[in-house]
Amino acid sequence: MATDITRTTTMQEILQAYPSAQRALFQRYHVGGCSSCGFQPTDTLQDVCLSHNISNVDEVIQHLKNSHEADARIEISARDAATGLASKAFKLLDVRSQEEWDIAHIEGAQLVTEQLGQELMTQWPKETPIVLHCHHGRRSLDAASYLIGHGFSNVRSMAGGIDAWSTDVDPSVPRY
Known about the structure:
The chain folds into 2 domains: 11-73, no CATH class; 77-168, Rhodanese-like domain (Oxidized Rhodanese, domain 1). Helix content is 49%, strand content 9%. The chain contains 9 helices and 5 strands. It has helices at residues 11-17, 21-29, 45-51, 57-74, 78-86, 98-103, 114-123, 138-149, 161-168, and strands at residues 75-76, 91-94, 110-111, 130-133, 155-158. Strands 1-5-4-2-3 form a 5-stranded parallel β-sheet. The model has no long low-confidence stretch (mean pLDDT 94).
């Protein structure tokens, strides 16, 4: 369970407890996406709201909690992903870099290259069952949100990424 967010919670604590908080803050309030709208890890939420002219800190807190709950609904465990992959219930897409793929990858997954990404966006049916994964589950959660925002209706993100796969499903997949 994520820690409670208050006005005095630091951004570092928020981002650690709510991995998608930066995306949620940027999408709704244009906070944290670039140098002109950024913040320091030691800034409190109240400080960030003040510096970005956001008067209702409680609304921001509720938005972060709602975003976290929405993200939790699109996550799938590594064990459930393994079951689905074995039955070919979805396409497993790896959103890590080529270098990470070379270190470790899941048999049956496809690395999302620029070419595959273009194909996915322009040719795949929007209802294609897709599970995304990365190293620890943060980038894949961002990628899943991106696809959902572009009309894909059957997208999940593997919680814990390939690291969870290595510990919960297949210890022969190297951890890094």
